[in-house]
Amino acid sequence: MASSLLLLSFLFFSLCHALPREAILDAADVLSDSNFVSMALTLEIVAETILEHSPSATVFAPSDAAFKKSGQPSLDILRFHFVPLPLPLSSLRIFPAGARIPTMLPGQSLTVTTSSSDRVTSLNNIKLTESPIYDDGLLLVYGIDRFFDPTFHSNNQRPISDSDSSCSRKNHTSSSNSFDQAVETLKAGGYTAMASFLGMQLFDVAEQSGITVFAPTDETVLNRIGDFSEYPSFFRRHVVPCRLLWNDLVDFGDGSELPTFLDGFAINITRSDGVLILNGVPVFFPDVFFNDKVVVHGVSDILAAQNNAVRVGEEENVFGEF
């Protein structure tokens, strides 16, 4: 057990705390060389203000023609073009049409409008460049030919269901992959902390009944969890004892609750501007990984204890000693 804790300590404290200024300047240089001069200059001026507390980001850069047509945008419009997590093309292509991607403009999100037949990813019906203009793993920049419209509404949104609040186990068909594959996929996608907990804690449980994991990124875990004594409680409140794909989650009505492996702690489902919210935290990356036993969804922050949750140290350890 001590070796596991030491490993987690090394993983957490070796992570980057903030997006470095050098990355922003490098991205601006590449944008300028790629004929996105207006956004290059804008990025140098506003990036640190918009991304003050974000260790990673994806930026959607309008073309020089878009700036010429629309004029210099407001800071709020610029915030609408910043997403506080890195989104490589492989991730963007996984989002289903109609999925919402929260932006740095509070309460506003981008809508995935890519259909299964499209070769190019689109958001709010605006196509992205076929590959990032800049990508260092933490900061990614895509080009777009015009500004996103915050008032955009997609006709592809799913109706909200009147599902009850139970976490019923559902049968799905999928290829049978190993539990280890879920762990490796999480590690490769920037969810090393959750992958480590998953590997140590839940193999037997997942094999028996299936689980759903709501995974914050490594940077979020590092910034929000500093005491080893909190780790078991932190992990268990992010895991639901049944298998729920994205299409299952969106069928739950507002106010539905999902039980977790932390005794007394439930996850409350609501929506804001069409974005699925769990205990106040948006689901950022649906179906990061899934097979016939494990489903993982990325969330933009840790799921904080609310009125229905017990406090750290008062819960029963349902997995035994950590």
TrEMBL record:
Signal peptide feature range: 1-18
Keywords noted in UniProt: Signal
PROSITE patterns: FAS1
Pfam families in the record: Fasciclin (PF02469)
UniProt name for this protein: FAS1 domain-containing protein
Organism from which the protein derives: Clitoria ternatea (Butterfly pea)
Region (Disordered), start-end ranges: 157-176
Sections of the chain in a coiled coil: none
